[in-house]
Every structure is written in structure tokens, then in C-alpha cells.
Amino acid sequence: MPHVVIVGGGFGGLDAARALAGAPVRVTLLDRHNHHVFQPLLYQVATASLSPGDIASPIRWILRRQRNVEVLLATVRSLDPANKRVVIDGDDAIAYDYLIVATGAAHSYFGHDEWAARAPGLKTLDDALVMRRRMLIAFEAAERETDPAKQKRLLTFVIIGGGPTGVELAGALAEIARQSLRQDFRRIHPESARIVLLEGSPHVLANFHDPLREAARRALERLGVEVRTDSIVTQVDADGVLWRPADPARRPASAGPDRAQRISAETVLWAAGVAASPIAKSLGVPLDRVGRVPAEPTLAVPGHPDIFVAGDICALQHDGAWLPGVAQVAMQEGAHAARNILRAIDGTPLEPFRYRDYGIMATIGRGSAVGEICGLKISGFFAWLFWIFLHIFWLIGFRNRFVVMTEWAWAYVTAQRRVRLITGDRAEG
Fold it and tell me: Among 4, 319, 42, 13, which residue's Cα sits nearest to residue 172?
């Protein structure tokens, strides 16, 4: 039987494997982790709302009933299109007849990789636990600190990037400080914590329409978050961040001085930029500015009809705009790539990918969200309820859905987060 190799067990890779269920092909799925993570809820692990196991499931368990799939724990070192093989750790190689590359994205620091140590991003469970550790340790260190200036710095949190991840992190962190931790300390007042969200463009949630952007900004400000748009970060160091106002041509006269300003902060979190997985470079084809593969309409790699790309590594336009790096795009592309492989095996023409846009959403704390669903613009409590339903529906496994629903209900009623655990070495991260 033809051998289909899938690289990546995220949304794209997992839906590709599922689309091949029962097909006359042999499937090998490779991933460097043994689990699939529901990435839209990673920020809830980072902000102590959920445990890692609530949003992740072993890939082998998910595909346990699919007899034509083999799952291997492996790190892919490179792709070898000329010899139709995938090189993995240990210099082993796996031959393929057809290949689906769905390796997702990594953090991009816009040429400043040295910032990574001070400003962790959020792509994996390990990232989420590093964020949680840093946030909680900052409050613990402030409780012990006697110098008011140092204490103020410890209680200052800067989030760089005003997309959905940054907005959701800022809202959740504000709720931790204002509600969950308010009665836990004796020397400090967690509710006095300063939370700053820096965004380089004129708006938070740039992919949303204007009324929802403004609704999100107002919701954040009600939680006490300082939202600074048109603010470009120029340095991240041991003391905090340095930022300057954006292009003066688009700044209002009342925006203040056009010079670099410093925010002294112990905790800096990165939610600003992503780049495609570097494995794309080994395909030997031109890439776009963030390292994605400009795919053909069928999702095939130009010049390689046996290789398909899906998810964050795939650059494809829809209605004149580039498709965003979100879960629903990856899922649809992964399934479509798998179906096109079956068409290729049958000798029938491949079909171009057509994206079905079901909308976008972002939550801002407890009981508030914004979303664009099937052309409808919703915000507030109703949007938050819809967000809950949507995420519970897409979670894998009955246990995950039940536990997450229970945790969210508890958090809504009590304003508490039960997973405020500092794990690992306190010196890590």
C-alpha cells in the first residue's frame, strides 16, 4: 500500500490522519511530543485556570482505533524530497510515497532571538508552565521584598502583542491579580499589580472589525489593564522593556513625547510574532518572509506533487487575503491534503482548497468575549458563553470536556483558579 508520512501531530496533522481512516494506505505520523495540545486554551494553563492534562491527549490514544496509522515519537531533522524520505533523530530515515508537512509555527522575535530568555512565548505545554511559574513566582517574590521600588517592579507585568493570545493573557492575568490572589497575601496587595499590553499597530485584535476591537479594549481597561497601541518594543532586558511610539505620521498630536520609554518589569511575556517551523527550509523551495511555503491551490508544494503542506507552515490566499494561522484553517487544510492524496492515488484530478470561515473569537476575562461568527459580530456575556460552547465542543475526549467545564463553572462562581501551582525548579525560565 502507498505510504503516507505526516509530520506534526497538531490540528493539521491530526485531521489529515483522521481523513485517511479506512483508506488503502499505510500512515506514519511523526511528532516530537507524544500528545496533541488544544492550543487555543494554552493561555488558560499559563494563567492557572486549567491543568496541562485538561487540554492535551496522547496522540496514540486519539488514533487508537485507526488500524492503518502508526505513531512514532521522533524529532524530524530534515526533509529529503529528492530521495522521498524524512530524516529523524538518530539519523534514521523514513521513506514515503506521499508526505504531509504540518509542523506548525515557532516564536519569532523579529531578529532579536536574545529576547527569548526574558520574554517566553506560548506554543507548547512547556511554554505555558514556564509562564505560569514566572507569574506566580513574581507575586511570591514581591511578598518577601521590603524595598517598595523593587516590589513595584516585581508586580509589573508586560505582555507584548495585542492579538488574541496577548489579549487573553492580559485579561486572565488581570483577573488573577484582582480576584484570585487578592486574599492570599499579607504584605502585598496583588490587585495593585500593573499589567501593560503593548501592541505595535493602532489596534488590539487587528483581524477583528473595529467595533469589536474597541469592545475588547474597553473590557481590558475595565479589568485595569494598560493598553498601549502604536507602541514598538525596541529592547527586552533584565530590567524590563524599552518601547517607543510608532511612526509619528499616524500618531495623534495628543499621543505624548516621541521618544523611547522604559517599563521596569520582572515578568515579560511574548505574544507578538510567529514564524513557520524551520523544517520548511529543507524542502528547497522559495519561502515567504515568515518562512511559510507558498502552496499551490491544491496545497501541494510547487515542484513536488507528492508533498502537501497544512496549517501554519502553509501560505495560501483566500478571497485576496492570506489565511490566518488558526486551528480551523489547519484542520481544514490537513483533511483536504489527505483527500487530495487519495485522489492522486486513484489517478483523479486534485481539487483546490476552499476555506470555510466559521469566524474568530477572543475572550477577555470572566464573562466577556468578542467574536465574529458567520458574519455576526457579538461581544459581552453572550459571546463568552458561545466561546465556552465552541471550545468544549472541539476538545478531544469526554473527560477533557467534563473537567474543563467543571473548572470553568467553579472559576465563574468563585472567581478562583485552583491550579495555582509552582512546579519545577524555581530558578528555571
Answer: 42
Query: How do residues 116-168 score in pLDDT, each as one tens digit?
Result: 999 999 999 999 999 999 999 999 999 999 999 999 999 999 999 999 999 99
* Whole-angstrom distance, CA of residue 364 vs CA of residue 377: 15
**From the candidate CATH numbers 3.50.50.100, 1.10.10.10, 3.30.450.40, 3.40.50.150, the one assigned to the domain spanning 113-272:** 3.50.50.100
Cell 496587595: give the residue.
189
Distance, in Å, from the CA atom of 66 to the CA atom of 404, rounded to the nearest integer, reads 26
The Cα–Cα gap between 75 and 135 comes to 30
Q: Which of 44, 63, 64 is nearest to 54 (CA)?
A: 44
Q: Closest by alpha carbon to 229, among 213, 240, 241? A: 213
Phi/psi of residue 337, each to 5°? -60, -40
Q: Which of 168, 199, 296, 407 is catalytic?
A: 168
* pLDDT in the model for residue 256: 56
CATH code, residues 3-32+74-107+274-346? 3.50.50.60
Q: Which amino acid is at 416?
A: Q
Name the phi and psi angles at 89, rounded to 5: -60, 150
Other Cβ atoms less than 10 A from the Cβ of 26: the count is 16
The bridge status of strand 194-198 relative to strand 225-228 is parallel
The packing angle between helices 398-414 and 381-394, to 10°, is: 160
Instruction: Return contacts of 140-145, CB within 8 angstroms, 24+ apart.
Output: 140/422, 141/266, 142/188, 143/185, 143/186, 143/187, 143/188, 144/187
**Cell numbers representing residue 194 in the block:** 500593573
Strand arrangement of the beta sheet that strand 304-309 belongs to: 69-73, 26-31, 3-7, 98-101, 304-309, 300-301
Q: 257 is written with which cell numbers? A: 513625547
Amino acid 279 reads I
What residue type is assigned to position 199 of the chain?
A: E
Please give the model's pTM, rounded to 2 decimal places: 0.90
Residue ranges, CATH 3.50.50.60, the chain: 3-32+74-107+274-346
Q: Is 296 a catalytic residue?
A: no
Q: How confident is the model at residue 255 (pLDDT cuts 50, 70, 90)?
A: low
Q: Using an 8 Å Cβ cutoff, are 287 and 307 in contact?
A: no
Instruction: Considering the chain, tell me which residue range(s) the CATH 3.50.50.100 domain(s) occupy.
Output: 113-272
